[in-house]
Every structure is written in C-alpha cells, then in structure tokens.
Automatic annotation (TrEMBL):
GO terms for biological process: cellular response to nitrosative stress; nitric oxide catabolic process; response to toxic substance. Gene3D superfamilies: Globins, Nucleotide-binding domain of ferredoxin-NADP reductase (FNR) module, Translation factors. Is involved in NO detoxification in an aerobic process, termed nitric oxide dioxygenase (NOD) reaction that utilizes O(2) and NAD(P)H to convert NO to nitrate, which protects the bacterium from various noxious nitrogen compounds. Therefore, plays a central role in the inducible response to nitrosative stress. It comes from Candidatus Macondimonas diazotrophica. InterPro entries: Cbr1-like_FAD-bd_dom, FAD-bd_FR_type, FNR_nucleotide-bd, Globin, Globin-like_sf, Globin/Proto, OxRdtase_FAD/NAD-bd, Riboflavin_synthase-like_b-brl. This is Flavohemoprotein.
Length: 392
C-alpha cells in the first residue's frame, strides 16, 4: 500500500508527465537499452525509432499516476500491458532494471529542483506497487498457460512444416512443436510471441494466429515489410524444417461471448486475427459481416478461404473493397468510409464490431462506426505494434 503522502506527490507530478512524459520515457529507453543488453532483444528497435513504444510507456505511466487513488478504474490498460509482456516473456527479475532506469531518467530529465529526494522516494514506492501488480498478473497468465493441455511455460521449440504464399506480400508459416506434442487451444484473435536469431542478434516479435485452433499446429501469416528484420527473414531464410521458439498465445482482442451480430472489418494484413474469428462465428452460427479492404487484388490474401466459408454459412456475408481497380470483382473501390459501412453492416447497429489494420484505417473505421451509432463499448480494435490513441 502506498502512503497518502506518496500518492499526493505522484499526483502532483501528473502535469509534468502530461507535457514531458515522452521525453522522460525516451531518455529511460536510451539508458536501459545501452546499459542492459540482456533486455534489448525483447524490444523492437523500429518501435523505438518511431517513438511508438516510448509514447505507449509514457501514456501507461501517466494513466497510472492519474488513477493512483483508484487502480480499479484503470480500465483495460493493465490487461493490455500484461498480455503484451507475457507474449514477449517479460520476467519478474527484469522489473528492477526498468525501475532503476526509470528513477534515473526522472532524476536526469526533471533535475534536482523538481526531482527531490521526496519525489524520487514516492515514485520508487509507486513503481514497486505497479511492478508487484504486473508481476502477479503475469504469473497468473504464465501459470494458466502451463496448466492447459498442450500448453507450456517459456520458450518452446517449433519447426516450420509448411509455407504457403497467400498474396504477393503475405506468406503463411505452419508451425509444429519439435517435441511432437499437442498445442494448447487459443481464443480467435490471439497472437503468439516468436524468438529467433537474425544476423547473430536475438529478436522477438508478435504474430496473430491466422488459422482456427486444431490442437497440433499453429499458423502465422506474415507480410513482408520493406527493410523489416524479421518479416524478411521469415519469408526468405526460414525454410521447411527450420526451428523457431514460440511463447504461448496471448492477447485480449478476442470475441466477446454473446449472440449479437458481429462485424469483422480488416485492412491489409490486419485480416489475420479475423480469420479464426470468422470461423468461430461460423461454428456458433452467429450472424457475421466480414469486410476486407486491400490495396489491390495482388495483395488481397485469403480470398478463396473466406469465400468458401461464407458460402457454407447462411448467416455470414462478406464485402471486399480495393483501393485500385483490377480484374477481380469487388464490392467497391476506395477506402474505408461511413457510406460503405452504412451499406454493408446490419441496419440494426447493436453489433459487436472488431476492426484491425493500419492506424489511419482504424481511425476511419472507428469514426464511421460511431457515426452509424454502434455503441463505443461494442467496438474492439488492436494495434500491430505499441498501443496508441486512435485519433478520429
Ligand atoms: C499483436 C500483434 C499482432 C501482429 N500480427 C501480425 C500478423 O499477423 N502479420 C504480420 O505480418 N504482422 C503482424 N504483427 C506485426 C509484427 O509483429 C512485426 O511488427 C512486423 O512483421 C514487422 O516486423 P519486422 O521485423 O519485419 O520489421 P521491423 O524490423 O520491426 O521494421 C519495421 C519498419 O521499421 C523500419 N525500421 C526498422 N528498424 C528501424 C530503425 N532502427 N530506424 C528506423 N526505421 C527502422 C523498417 O525499415 C520497417 O519499415 C503483429 C504485431 C502485433 C503487436
Ligand atoms: C511497471 C513497469 C512497467 C510498465 C508500466 C510497462 C508498461 C508498458 C506499456 C504501456 C507497454 C505498451 C503496451 C502495448 O503496446 O499495448 C509495454 C510494452 C512492453 N514492455 Fe513494459 N512496462 C513495465 C515493465 C516492463 C519490464 C520490466 C519489461 C522487461 C524488460 C518490459 C518490457 C516490455 C516490452 C518488451 C514491451 C513491448 C515493446 C515493443 O513493442 O517493442 N516492460 N510496457
């Protein structure tokens, strides 16, 4: 329990975090990634270069400081952090590293006049409280995965058993445990963490599970990113029989149980988590509208699979929209907008909507759903990178 005095001091730093939180977390990462090489492989360097991860951490710390009196009002933030941490195997022994670098960054960025001993002491206690909360919640998830049939703790060696091109830029990899055992089920929409070595450097990334659970293999479907370290390696260097380490499935972008009609709206490679979701809707006979936006026919993946499933599901409908005209028939040309979604989504707006794709796409979809009257609590989205605000 934090003392009332510690809480007051932390709350008093909220205005500083609002204006200078990102400078603080940038400095923090600068210190930690330079001085603690053992945690470097967990972090995606592109998220450092773009500033997305320092921004996500700054927002996390700010929300924590704002809600320090009532941590139960922090909303989904803690769960999101826990799932991301677990998927990349953050461990309890790494928390003191983050804590000491954060306190050092507070001292160095704010200077001795503001970062007095009392401020540092209050933030040290506040950090410890949050660390204990996260460590406890993360252990619960690790333990649950280990106790599930086909589950495991830590890294498990898998091998690539099949590779299938799905479009000119997306390739699926089918992964089977090297120990020959079963794999735990996952909730449609969840992702795994992978660990591998590229050019002598250990790297970790997340990929959504793109095929329904089958008990024996997982499938990921990877878009080649120009200049991307891992996606190019998975496309070009990782052949059949190659080894790759997986951390158990995680993530909260999953279908809420219920009977409301579903809208699954994806842009580009964001289609991957919506595929097991569509399959689950089919099995549950739940009404579903599947909408996919792609730049053109050449990059439009999984069209045949979706068409086949929808043809077998009387309660499912699908719509495709390409930005550029091509030879294959589509339902519209252009980008995601209110007019298109108004035409395609059920007229009764009481639906559960799941959308995923590039952030500007998600912002457009969120805005459109709002205009159409879909209740905000029934909108769900996820980032293929650090969480951020969706500017609508
Ligand atoms: C929950 C979740 C699910 C995901 N699911 C999928 C999925 O199903 N399919 C999928 O394809 N992806 C998915 N991703 C994204 C995936 O994790 C990777 O981010 C993506 O494959 C790019 O990784 P990369 O190593 O190829 O590129 P990176 O090396 O991370 O590079 C990304 C971009 O940044 C640039 N860059 C890299 N390093 C620097 C630097 N130091 N300075 C400046 N620029 C730099 C690169 O040129 C490139 O353009 C998911 C992500 C999350 C968080
Ligand atoms: C109280 C302490 C911590 C807080 C408040 C915190 C907060 C966060 C937040 C807000 C995110 C972004 C989540 C998202 O994108 O949805 C994140 C991601 C992450 N955190 Fe933490 N974290 C803490 C401790 C740690 C520790 C101890 C480690 C291990 C070294 C760690 C490693 C990571 C990694 C690897 C990511 C993903 C980074 C990426 O995408 O490149 N965190 N954390």
């Amino acid at each position: 329990m934090l003392s009332a005095q510690h809480r007051d001091i932390v709350k008093a730093t909220v205005p500083l975090l609002e204006t200078g939180g990102e400078a603080l977390t940038r400095h923090f990462y600068g210190i930690m990634l330079a001085e603690y090489p053992e945690v470097r492989p967990l972090f995606n360097q592109a998220h450092q270069a773009s500033g997305a991860q320092p921004r996500a951490l700054a927002n996390g710390i700010l929300q924590y400081a704002r809600h320090i009196d009532r941590l139960d009002t922090l909303g989904p933030l803690v769960g999101q952090i826990v799932q991301k941490h677990v998927s990349l195997q953050v461990l309890p022994e790494q928390y003191p590293i983050v804590g000491s670098c954060l306190l050092r960054a507070i001292r160095e960025v704010l200077g001795p006049d503001i970062a007095t001993d009392a401020v540092i002491e209050a933030w040290a206690a506040a950090y410890q409280q949050l660390a204990d909360l996260l460590i406890g919640a993360e252990e619960d998830v690790y333990a649950a995965a280990a106790a599930t049939p086909g589950g495991w703790r830590g890294a498990r060696r898998f091998e690539v058993v099949r590779k299938v091109p799905e479009s000119v830029e997306i390739t699926s990899l089918y992964l089977r445990p090297a120990d020959g055992g079963a794999v735990m089920p996952f909730k449609p929409g969840q992702y795994i963490g992978i660990r591998l070595t590229v050019d002598g450097q250990e790297v970790r990334r997340n990929y959504s599970l793109s095929a329904p659970p089958n008990g024996s293999t997982y499938r990921i479907s990877v878009k080649r990113e120009p200049g991307g370290v891992v996606s190019n390696h998975l496309h070009d260097a990782l052949g059949i029989g190659a080894a790759i380490d997986l951390f158990p499935p995680a993530g909260e972008f999953v279908l809420a149980p219920g009977e409301r009609p579903l809208a699954l709206i994806s842009g580009g490679v964001g289609i991957t988590p919506t595929l097991p979701m569509l399959h689950a809707a089919h099995e549950q006979r739940r009404p579903v509208t599947f909408v996919h936006f792609a730049r053109n026919a050449a990059v439009h993946a999984f069209r045949d699979w979706v068409d086949d499933l929808v043809a077998r599901s009387p309660q499912a409908r699908r719509f495709y929209c390409h930005e550029q005209a091509g030879t294959l028939p589509v339902d519209a040309h252009g980008r995601a907008c209110t007019d298109l979604l108004a035409r395609w989504l059920p007229q009764a707006r009481d639906m559960d909507a799941y959308f995923i794709g590039p952030p500007p796409f998600m912002a457009a979809v969120k805005r459109a759903l709002g205009e159409l009257g879909v209740p905000p609590a029934q909108m769900h989205w996820e980032f293929f990178g650090p969480a951020a605000a969706l500017e609508t």
